[in-house]
Amino acid sequence: MFYWIMKHIVVGPLLLSIFRPWVVGLEKVPKEGPVILASNHLSFIDSIFLPLIVDRPVVFLAKSEYFTGKGLKGWATRMFFQAAGQLPIDRSGGKASEASLNTGLRVLGEGRILGIYPEGTRSPDGKLYRGRTGVARMVLEAGVPVVPVAMIGTAEIMPIGTRLPKVRRVGIVFGEPLDFSRFHGMEGDRFVLRSVTDELVYDLRALSSQEYVDVYASTLREQRAAQTTSG
Fold first, then answer.
1. DSSP assignment, residue 26?
2. Phi, psi of 221 (to 5 degrees)
């Protein structure tokens, strides 16, 4: 109920009227049943506008740190992510990664929409980066349709490191649903996982027209942080 009120009465109408998003292909999102929305990731606000546009609730798996902050700021952040329909997960790897997978599969098993970012983190410079194969494993184990989604212009509206967005139009483009049923039962094959991931990222590249870089976005961010520290 809280999610519905925030989306349809409090926050949603205000944001839609201010940023006036343009949308292509929304009809490609199934009206019912489990589905994965796999999006490029340019800005913090991707997780806000994508759920606003889709008629059905969209669940994202967010870092658990967003739900554990203290004080007024921690409370406000927690309320915001709950209102956005996001679930806390531990991204530290190992057993935490397995728990994240299981949480995503549970959401899909309930017939809901799960939003994921194949790149794993926000692009540091607006380019499209190599996808993480953990996404492919979830896709194959769930056996549900995957709709690629391209967020357009969100990096210009709210770049990494900024707190307040600029008022500009947001674009959201939905691609044709992808069917990976031909790989059923092969989620343990790392070559298959890489193939599925690359196919998905290829579609995102076509939809978004982003320049593709064949490295992980997180690796590039770590390298830049190390250079800044050493400098």
1. G
2. -65, -40
User: Which ranges in 20-170 belong to alpha helices (H)?
Assistant: 46-53, 71-83, 95-109, 133-142, 154-157
Please identify which residue in the block is written with the tokens 């942080």.
225
- Strands 171-174, 146-152: pairing is antiparallel
CATH of domain 1-6+20-229: 3.40.1130.10
pLDDT for 205 equals 97
In the chain, what percentage of residues exceed pLDDT 70?
80
Q: Residue 99: what pLDDT?
A: 74
Q: Please say whether the beta carbons of 105 and 24 come within 8 A.
A: no
**Rounded Cα–Cα distance for residues 20 and 34 (Å):** 28
Q: Does the pTM of the predicted model rise above 0.85?
A: yes
Residues shown for the chain: 231
How do the domains of the chain map onto residue ranges?
1-6+20-229
**Spatial separation of the C-alpha atoms in residues 29 and 170, rounded to whole Å:** 19
CB–CB of 58/85 below 8 Å?
A: yes
